[in-house]
Design brief:
The protein is an all-beta fold and 639 residues long. Helix content is 1%, strand content 47%. It contains one helix and 49 strands. A five-stranded mixed beta sheet has the order 9-17-16-12-13, with no helix packed on it.
Amino acid sequence: MAFPIGTRAGMRAQATCLVQEGDQPLTFAWQKDGKPLDGLRNVRPSQLDAFTSILVIELASADHSGNYTCAATNPAQTSYANAQLTVSVPPAWVVEPSSANVALSGQVALHCLAKGFPNPTVVWRKETTTGDFSGVATGESGVDGWENGTLSVSRAERRHEGRYLCEANNGVGAGLSKVVSLTVNEPPWFGVRSQRQQVVVGATATLTCEAHGDIPLTLVWTRDSSPLPALPRYEVSEREMEKGRLSELVLHTTHVGDSGTYVCTATNAHGFLTADFHLLVQDVPGSPLGLGVSEEGSRHLTLSWTPPEDSNSPISAYLVSFTPQDTQLFPSGFFIGPREVTVEGDQQQVRIEGLIPATSYVFTVVAENRVGRSKLSSPLRVTTHEEAPSGHPQNVRVVAVSSTALQVSWEPPLDNLTHGTVLGYYLGFKDDRHLFSISESEGGAYNFTTVGVDGAGVTTATLAGLRPHAHYSVVLQAFNSRGAGPMSPPAKATTLEDKPSAPPGHLTCESVSSRSLVVTWKPPAARHINGVVTNYRILYSAISDHDGGRGKSKVSEGLRATLTELLPWTNYSITVTAATRAGEGVASAPLPCVTNQDGALPMLSVSDVPAGMSTFIVGGLGEWGIVGTITLALLSGGS
């Protein structure tokens, strides 16, 4: 049983089911794809004779494609015959392409879905400048083609606009094709949607609104959601551009009240969009208010004030000026003139340092922003407290007198800076152990001791119990009944060197030949060097008695030494000491080290060896002695 090959939609098809052998009576039944033919249109089974049944399809369609089964039954059994029918169907639209509009930068899909058998192939083409249609390059420039025939654009641009041709073909019939148009609409857009501009009072501000999009394009200005005020100082002008429209809003002789948000609204047939222009008109600040003293002392005052009203420009700094009320002279003869202190703009108080005790000052403050400075505040007059000496001891000198002591000498502070009778001094010292401190603050505090005045003029003191060859900083403070004055600038000195108090470390030895050794070591711990290492001495002697116990030494300026002219296969005891200018320090623990065996001895003659003897005397060793393991080879011929 078989259907004709090449059946197309609209043609007739039939299959004949013939029973070649078998008894009557026979009955025939037809199925398609395992189901009865009920409901299948244009299909008619008929029995030609007792042994033949014919299935006729009067008008073939895609629904008729499938596997048909003829079942012939008699009282003995049922037999089956199968035939496959394939109906070729030309393409037909499922979703017919249609023209589309899309906003610039928007997404759009052109659908083209066809059915048929075999499945149609869908191809998109775009019209060129010559009027021909060429294939659309998918996967590039935001254009993608999908298996269902849809052409999508993820971000529409002007170049995507044009006429597109969709073709659906499966080789059956003429195929389908349709031309559609894609129009890219350009709603209003701005290159910059938000701008900020700052001007000073009285200046001219120009706000430029540049909009793009399809024409006609209109631009309208508003301020804080309201129309612009009808002021002659506000001037609006517009002009066309190649790809849009430009509007300028000019504000002449600006006031602080002109500050605000100006909105430019662009509108065309495809929508509208706004751009914001934030204008800030700034003025100099007002004078600070309420200048007063919140805390005072002999050498400092803390002033506070209230900021002025907002002038649309943040306060960048406050400048506090102060001048002694009475004319005073420094010892050098220079007049104490006005001083000025700058304070950050977000602060409303300042601690004024470096004042003179028991002195009356006049203070004023001004505010400053990017526009300029305010007027002076109301003046404030304040007198500082009395205090301890403000001068430090002079001409501090420190001299090393031993490896553990420093001699300190100095002169009293200047008379006009003592502010009373000097009762004594605080002598401070610290070890500048930067190499050994975990942090700079460790060991950074001074150790103070009190020393008395030995009379007018130069005073002296001795610091004892110090570390050898250590760098010390020494300071002095004069004190009176009100307290101590400032420290003198640190005077630095270094104690004298001493011998190292620890041996070199990590002593190693390596035999490089039968007559030489290489010895290496590390310097002693830095805190035990007690000076600058000038050299290292290596002491070595043979442990055996062959050398008579005589020791030798070698000096090295580095951390490595090669010992030569040694005995082969000999155990040596090695120690190393470090030396400074003060002498040699502690020796390291002895390190044993063995030289290599010597090479082969000269060929020696062994004669008169009785047969069967395994022990005999070797003569002729001469001056070598036993320098290793001796291996003898007995050669043939009695040698």
